[in-house]
Structure formats: C-alpha cells, structure tokens
Amino acid sequence: MAYDNILFTVDGGVATLTFNRPKALNAMNSATMAELSDAVSHCRKDDAVKVLVLTGAGEKAFVAGADISQMQDLRPQEALAFMEAGQETLRQIETLPKPVIAAVNGYALGGGAEIALACDIRFASEKAVFGQPEILIGLIPGWGGTQRLPRIIGMGRAKELILGGAQIDAKRAYEIGLVNRILPPEQLMEETLKFARKLAEMPGFALKMAKHAVNYGYDLALDNACRLEVECCAQCFSTDDQKEGMKAFLEKRKPAFKGK
Ligand code: DAK
Q1: pTM of this prediction exceeds 0.90
Q2: CB of residue 109 inside a 6 A radius of ligand 1
Q3: CA dist 36 to 154, 178, 255, Å?
C-alpha cells in the first residue's frame, strides 16, 4: 500500500511511523487510520522489524485527535464504523508482539492521546501536551481512552482528564505516570531511537513473551496471571537465544542473540 498520510521507514530493526498531516496537526482521518493499520500489519509480518516507533511530523503535534472535520456530520452508524476501525487499529498496536514506543513531540489530544496509550512506552518532548478534550465537543473518548487511561494513571486522575477535558503539559504527564521520560524537543527522536535500537537487540521471543504476560495477565486474578507468566517464561526455554544468553553469562561475554 502506498502511503499519503504517514511516513514509514525501517532501519536497523526499528520501524519509524510518522503521522504526516502537519497542516491539520496530524489529525486522524479514516485514510490515515487505514495506513496506520496497514503499516502495523506489515510490522507484525516483517521479521526485519523488531521495534516500532510512532511520532508526528512538524513541530506542534503528535496527533491532535480524530479529524473533527471528517467526524462532524457522521450518522451514528458511520460513527460506529469510524470508531470500530480506530479501536481495531489501536488493538493491533497494543497486541503487536514487538515493543511499540510513542515519541510524543507535541499535542496528543483525544484520539492522539489514545494512540499513545495503546503504545507500550511513551517518551515525551518538553513541549508535549496531553488531554482527552472530547467532552468539550459533546463526545467521550472512542478509541479506548476511557479504558486504557485509568489502567495507566489510575481511576481518579483519568476521570479528572476525561470529565474535565483539560490539557496537561509533559511535566504533569510525567508526574502522573502517563509518560516514561521527558526530553528536550531536539533530543526526543535521538533518545527514543537509541532506546528502540537497544530493544531491537534484545531476544525477540522473550520480548514477545514479556509483553504478552503483562498485557494478558493484567486483568486476570493474580493466581491465573502468575500461571500465565510461568507458561510464557517456560516457553523462552525453547529458544536458541535463551541458551545463548545463559551460556554468554557463564562465559562472561556479551550474548549474540539471533532472534531464534
Ligand atoms: N481535527 C481536524 N483538524 C484539526 C484538529 C482535529 N482534531 N486539530 C487541529 N486541526 C486543524 C485546525 O482546524 C487548523 O486547520 P486550518 O484552520 O489551518 O485549516 C490546523 O489544524 C491548526 O490548528 P489551530 O489553528 O487550531 O492551531 P492552534 O495552535 O491554535 O491550536 C490545538 C492547537 C491542538 C489546541 C487546537 O487545534 C485544538 O484544540 N484542536 C482540536 C483538539 C481536539 O479537540 N482533539 C480531540 C478531537 S475529538 C469516535 C471516534 C473517535 C473519537 C471519538 C469518538 N467515534 C466515531 C464515536 C475521538 C475523538 C477525538 O479525538
């Protein structure tokens, strides 16, 4: 699929997907959502992709939300289709068996914040702004915000943002655990890619199992969740990388993982 609304590159195991409609602050219309979905599917299938990084083009925005101009006249049935496409795509990101990092370079509002929430890790520029302002235009979050935000920052803080519609800066986002790191704008991509490359060198199957255990264990009762963890951990013993990792440790050398 040729892309008109995103840029997509793969380099050294790291795929970088840049939302690229800077004049509309990278607002998500259905064409962009379809391209995002296609690129994430590609990342799932392509063994050369070990880690995915999402960011926004331009200086101002990661993604300033779902495209309001496209949404304003939707009938309920069309709104449902738009919402389902978004939900499915964000679930694709969340369940991608590879780490996904959001490099939030500016506004991450509404659907933009929800895309960041579906990622495993969020790095933010000092200029980043987060919020769920849907209430201010007569909506509620439709791409998982009401569910993922409380899981990440807690129920009370999530309700404050979702019901109040306020925007918060990167410092506040860091304080409440919404972002993992804050970086000067000019260092955001460099530091994100440095971290992504580090992950790309990790044993891929173990990364996949770690993400799986955290994601799928989270909503289980502790007994069942720990059982899931044990099974995921035991499966790592079927890989060459586990053998190599332990052998290298005992031989006091750096492991050479092959992703097998
Ligand atoms: N949609 C469409 N265009 C947008 C946009 C958006 N979300 N955000 C910005 N733009 C466009 C502006 O219209 C403007 O276009 P032109 O007038 O130049 O043609 C251009 O980007 C620059 O924006 P501003 O001139 O407004 O720039 P400022 O620096 O003054 O302000 C801002 C930046 C981010 C504070 C402001 O643009 C803003 O408030 N934007 C809207 C933010 C927002 O409310 N985002 C949440 C959208 S609602 C569902 C599916 C999904 C969702 C819900 C339900 N189902 C179908 C049920 C999700 C909803 C949302 O995400």
Answers
A1: yes
A2: yes
A3: 28, 23, 34
